[in-house]
Amino acid sequence: MGSSSGQKPNKIEDLVDRLANGSLTHSRLERELGNANEAALVRRLFLERVTGANLSGVASTILDFQELYGRNIENPIGAVQVPVGIAGPLRVNGEYARGDFYIPLATTEGALVASVNRGAKAITLSGGARARVIRDGMTRAPLLWTPSVDEAYRLARWVEERIEDLRRVVGGVTRHGKLQHIYPYIIGNLVWLRLTFSTGDAMGMNMVTISSDRICRYIEENYGGDAKCVALSGNMCTDKKPAAINKILGRGKYVVAEALIKGNIIREVLKTTPQSIDLVNTTKNLLGSAAAGSLSFNAHFANIIAAIFIATGQDAAQVVESSMGYTWTEVRGEDLYISVTLPSLEVGTVGGGTRLPTQRELLALLGVAGGGNPPGSNALKFAEIVASAVLAGELNLLAAIAAGQLAKAHELLGRGGLRVG
Predict the structure, then answer these.
(1) Measuring CA to CA, which residue among 413, 326, 416, 417 is closest to residue 116?
(2) What long-range pairs does 173-176 form, CB within 8 A, spacing at least 24?
(3) CB 258 within 8 A of CB 341
(4) How far is CA 377 from each of CA 344, 348, 384, rounded to the nearest angstrom?
(5) N or C: which end of the chain has fewer CB within 10 A?
(6) Nearest-5° angle of CA 301, CA 202, CA 76?
(7) How confident is the model at residue 1, as a pLDDT?
(8) Closest Cα to residue 239, out of 191, 204, 213?
């Protein structure tokens, strides 16, 4: 990315020199230049000088840091590229997502796209996946200190009695978010307030964090007893960490996708039997996970969720809790029932990385870019599509294991065994 506002080469070199001698910090470059794209150029030149690395690939990007600086990135130098493949068509019969969808997957793992693609074929030929969002609410859990358990109990009751006042506080912060519930947790003299919000089409972390801050201020200013906010996030939310509370109460979208796979499709497409897939799921996903003390009872939810998150501009760190969940199978006559349950799928179609140009294109590919009509419907549609894609990936992996195909697939597609030309 070159100089876009006519800065002279000696000015650029001077700034590189100042970075090198320590008289200028990277965080001040945008103020010095007044242009985030030129600041990225200076940083790259500096890094190439001091490390000897060639960053021409990192420099090759369509991103405009004038738009992203202060929103999505600090100290930018360029961008990385991740291959994107598509799986599908995948038929989804949801409440919001209805039709055939091509699923974008950004990954460097050979065989992943092929795995989801074969699972999607089996599901679609069997009539499609059914998907439903069971609950929808983003959480934040401020931690408050009081001097005693009696005071903690009084504070918890006081907060619950004033939920309408707190809803008005949130209404003054955002017109898109609404306070749904408050769940107080008391440990000794400490009180966690697990606050649940609706957030429209946004994933909503910024929205709920700012709203929770205003709620804490309101409590400190209006509660008659002795209480102080210790941490705006007290880790009982729980964000970017695996936690049983998210599996039980949900965080983001609590979504289920299911399908009844016909016996002949299992034999012809997946090359195995319903009984074999059910046995693998019971022994691997359920018993194996229990023996390991895992919080998740699935084969590879994270594979599909991470690939979709990167492709569509979701918060990649939230793959941690978004990929917790359960795979369930039942043999029904000649057919196989299979479902995936994701209690904490945290997705949105506005805000964050969804504003990046390539990520927005791929959201548009799914028909969910931007805000929905009514508000919130695009994020719900997206959640149903993601869960259905996870179902496709899970079905195929279980089938590949049951048929003894797993190693062969990775040898062919993950180690250069498949060539073009």
Answers:
(1) 413
(2) 173/207, 173/210, 173/211, 173/214, 174/207, 174/210, 174/211, 176/200, 176/202, 176/207, 176/375
(3) no
(4) 18, 10, 11
(5) C
(6) 85
(7) 46
(8) 204
The angle at the Cα of 110, spanning 108 to 116, to the nearest 5 degrees, equals 100
CATH number of this structure's domain 85-136+247-413: 3.90.770.10
Residue type, 36: A
Burial of 167 (0-12, 13-18, 19+ CB in 10 A): middle
Residues annotated catalytic, as ranges: 109, 240, 315, 410
142-231 is classed in which CATH architecture?
2-Layer Sandwich (3.30)
Collapse the DSSP code of 85 into the 3-class scheme (helix H, G, I; strand E, B; otherwise coil) and give the result.
strand
Residue with tokens 């089938």: 399
Both tokens of residue 411?
A: 């040898």
Q: 1: which 2 tokens?
A: 């990315």
85-136+247-413 and 142-231: identical CATH topology: no
Strands 129-140 and 190-198: antiparallel
Q: Domain map of the chain by residue range?
A: 17-68, 85-136+247-413, 142-231
Q: Is the pLDDT of residue 421 over 80?
A: no
pLDDT tens per residue across span 67-119:
999 899 999 999 999 999 999 999 999 999 999 999 999 999 989 999 999 99
Alpha helices in 22-162 (DSSP H): 29-33, 36-51, 56-59, 65-68, 112-125, 149-161
- For residues 274-302, give the mean pLDDT: 97
Cα of 55 vs its chain's centroid, Å: 29
**pLDDT tens-digit series, residues 9-25:** 789 999 999 999 999 99
Residue 83 CB: number of other CB atoms within 10 A? 11
DSSP state of 87: E
Write the DSSP symbol of residue 355.
G
| Residue 129 CA to its chain's centroid (Å) | 21
Under the banding of pLDDT at 50, 70 and 90, the label for residue 175 is confident
Contacts of 333 (CB under 8 A, 6+ apart): 263
Cβ atoms of 192 and 143 closer than 8 Å: yes
Token pair listed for 380: 């719900």
Mean pLDDT in the chain? 94
3-state secondary structure of 405: coil
